[in-house]
Amino acid sequence: MADPAPEDTVPTEPAPTEPVPTEPEQALPILPTGPSEPAPLPTISIQDILGSVEVSQNREAEDKAKLEAIGVISFETLRSSLLQWATKGFPNAYTIYEVPMVAPALCSDGVARSLPDYIVFCSGKTINEHVDVLQQRLIDITVSYAYTGSTILIVVSKQA
Questions:
Q1: DSSP reduced 3-state for 156
Q2: Helix or strand or coil: residue 143?
Q3: Which residues have C-beta within 8 Å of that of residue 93, sequence separation ≥ 6?
Q4: Tens digits of per-residue pLDDT, 7-65?
């Protein structure tokens, strides 16, 4: 076989002798490779525990006061809410009062409770007992409640 004719070959460039840089090199951080010291374990003191219990007890006392307020809504506040209800035509389950409340992850005694159980724990009464106090003040009006996320709604409806 004969060598190909010079016009059949494609000339090639000689290979560069040094690498051609395409992008600037970035410095990589140097990380220690030896053994590292473990993080210290958290500590707890009696003072930490007492402080946490005290904060929880204060919150529970505040929540108890909010719940007790349901039965002693001032006459003017109650009257104003009921007049607004009347101007709207007495719709069922009309909100007249709101109590912001969320059960904590843990109560002061270290127990997790649902909102209804938390209400009993911090106030000594069920939500029904709190609502009944208000119910005794309203004639021909049914008082009820609803839980909506972080709020207890106190609602009224006309008795049939």
A1: strand
A2: strand
A3: 144, 146, 155, 156, 157
A4: 555 555 555 565 555 555 566 666 666 667 888 888 777 766 655 767 888 899 999 99
d(CA 91, CA 95): 10
How many Cα atoms occupy the beta-carbon half-sphere of 117 within 13 Å?
8
Q: Are 119 and 67 in contact (CB under 8 A)?
A: yes
- Grouping H, G, I as helix, E, B as strand and the rest as coil, residue 47 is helix
Is the four-CA dihedral 77, 82, 86, 92 of positive or negative sign? positive
Amino acid sitting at position 107: C
User: Taking the chain, what is the end-to-end CA distance rounded to the nearest angstrom?
Assistant: 113
Whether 141 and 83 have beta carbons less than 8 Å apart is answered as no
Three-state SS at 80: helix
Whether this prediction's pTM lies above 0.85 is answered by no
Instruction: Say how far apart CA 155 and CA 160 lie, in whole Å.
Output: 16
SS3 state of residue 11: coil
Quote the distance between the C-alpha of residue 3 and its chain's center.
83
Cα-based distances in Å from 42 to 37, 48, 52? 15, 12, 16
DSSP structural state of residue 101: -
Domains of the chain: which residue ranges? 46-158
